[in-house]
Design a protein that fits this description.
This protein has helices at about 1-30, 35-50, 70-100, 105-120; strands at about 55-60, 125-130. With about 130 residues, the protein is mostly helical. It has one domain. It has a two-stranded antiparallel sheet with strand order 1-2.
């Protein structure tokens, strides 16, 4: 029940902005055709940014034993950072700082900082229930 309340508050108090930013990034990447490898990661994180409480982000293979792609994921994340990651991370950092001003906003600010780290390198991450 607490997760539901936190997710509703998150969405109403600005989570929808993050959802739209991630969806916009994914849509732009999909339109370019060249950005298709990053589209799935952007849409996966968009879903997480809409309701982050009760879920967490883990590295690919952390739970399933699936072998990470290593160098390929690194190359994709570097390209992602140059074209989309830095502005999404900046978006989350600005929102986190604004939320840290109030006591009730601190848990939401922490979630934005987690999303900012993910925005820097989302390829190879999976969303799992906690």
């Amino acid at each position: 029940m607490l997760r539901l309340i936190l997710n509703i508050l998150w969405f109403v108090l600005g989570g929808w902005i993050s959802l739209l930013a991630w969806l916009l990034a994914g849509a732009i990447l999909a339109i370019t055709i060249v950005g298709l490898p990053w589209t799935a990661a952007a849409f996966r994180i968009a879903g997480f940014s809409a309701a982050p409480f009760g879920r967490t982000l883990v590295a690919k293979g952390a739970l399933t034993g699936e072998r990470p792609s290593g160098m390929l994921d690194l190359i994709f994340n570097v390209i992602w950072f140059v074209f989309a990651g830095w502005w999404l991370a900046l978006h989350h950092i600005v929102l986190a700082l604004a939320l840290f001003v109030t006591i009730i906003g601190i848990p939401f600010g922490i979630q934005h900082l987690k999303l900012a780290l993910t925005a820097l390198a989302p390829v190879g991450t999976r969303v799992v229930e906690t």
